[in-house]
Amino acid sequence: MKTPICDFVKKYAESDALRLHMPGHKGVSFIGAEPLDITEIDGADSLYEASGIIKESEDNSSELFGCPTYYSTEGASHSIRAMLYLISLYARERGERPLIAAAMNVHKVFLTAVALLDLDVEWLDFDDREGYLSCVFEAKKLDKFLQTAPKKPTAIYLTSPDYLGNIADIKAISAVCKKHRVLLAVDNAHGAYLRFLTPSQHPIDLGADICCDSAHKTLPALTGAAYLHISNTAPEIFVSEAKNALALFGSTSPSYLVLQSLDRLNAYLADGYNERLSSLAKRVNSLKTRLVEAGYILYGNEPTKITLATKEYGYTGTDFAKILSEKGVFCEYADPDFIVFMLTDEIGEEGLFRLENALLLMPKMSAIPTNRVTVHRPERVMSIRDAMLSPCERVATVNAFGRVLAQPSVSCPPAVPIAFCGEKIDEKVVSTFDYYGINELTVVKE
Ligand SMILES: Cc1ncc(COP(=O)(O)O)c(C=O)c1O
Fold this sequence. Notes:
This protein has about 450 residues and is of the alpha/beta class. Among the domains are: about 275-360, Aspartate Aminotransferase, domain 1, CATH 3.90.1150.10; about 385-445, Molybdopterin biosynthesis moea protein, domain 2. It contains 15 helices and 13 strands. Strands 1-7-6-5-4-2-3 form a seven-stranded mixed β-sheet, with helices on both faces. It has a four-stranded antiparallel β-sheet with strand order 8-9-11-10. Strand 2 (about 100-105), helix 4 (about 110-115) and strand 3 (about 120-125) form a beta-alpha-beta unit. Helix 1 crosses helix 10, helix 5 packs parallel to helix 6 and helix 11 (about 275-295) packs parallel to helix 13. The longest helix is centred in the middle third of the chain and has 21 residues, at about 275-295. The protein is globular. The structure holds pyridoxal-5'-phosphate.
């Protein structure tokens, strides 16, 4: 597959061009990447009005994903804002006020988008949660919810895969959405690679109308590389307004380094990635089997993520991560209960072997009682938008009782809100923040 953006930039970098345009480094190496870091010069196209090399590259990507696909250089966060804007446009075009029914383990950017776009949200609270990071619910529960909902939502919004590696049954959920004529939007930030499994497990192939992927999370792309995908059967306005939606929230100086990375990725994906992924999934699966034999408790069903419930093995996730980091093994995420490893083909046989060794050499200790916090919804006293746009202040979590949460107050990873903006902080919420070591909250100024 061709790489028009990379080819153009390479040719420019190799010419003796006198760069009298931005960026100010003029192609001189400081960190090393500058010669390839350009801006919208003649022939370089323009991301939000693409008609040249960027359009050609996005078309290649659309072919690979089997649906209209648009680039973002500002992460799935950017695509999520665009996705919610498009859903909102669709509702407004029909003369309706947009209502999103969302599973509660949203990434915090969902809340910022809701605030900026003035959307109404209903939380789907019928999932069987083991903690605040996962929302696993059956399609038949969604069916029942939609049958009895006093106001039909414009869209159902799901995060799948979630941070702990659970993939929702998108096929069954999308069938329910179609039955009730409700759109399905999926935060697939962790699942770009799902398209390349056999058969594909990508949300768009399983019936979602729209989804975002972080290319940089599970594919070999630079940080910030992301996609917005739209189903071939989605409302027409999604495609006609996709670029405007991304432009609304994006920088006018998208990174050409990230664009080259997305462009190069097309060639990588077209060149036997399915086979490499299938082989990786098999190797990870057999490693998982050996870990179970060694007494580990695994969590989630994602083929390239390994999540260990560490307390059963005698450690908190955070202590476990610290011990591993002393051996030069760094995880994606750890909390009191879990540790998460994200694997791609790029770690090679040797990397998998190193991980296995490190895990199998870890002595099994007596289990620590698991007292995972169950999440509850405190009283809502303000809308998400009013709370997020209100003057705010930071207070110690222990002093936040009775205050109204203004900002999610959770950092990356996993950036999944424990309480939502506009909710009144009660004792249970204080103790949950405390459990996750979050000592300061941003609350509405009184
Ligand atoms: C579930 C989920 N959605 C969205 C995002 C945002 O993605 P990005 O970092 O590509 O902006 C993240 C980031 O960690 C995430 O975990």
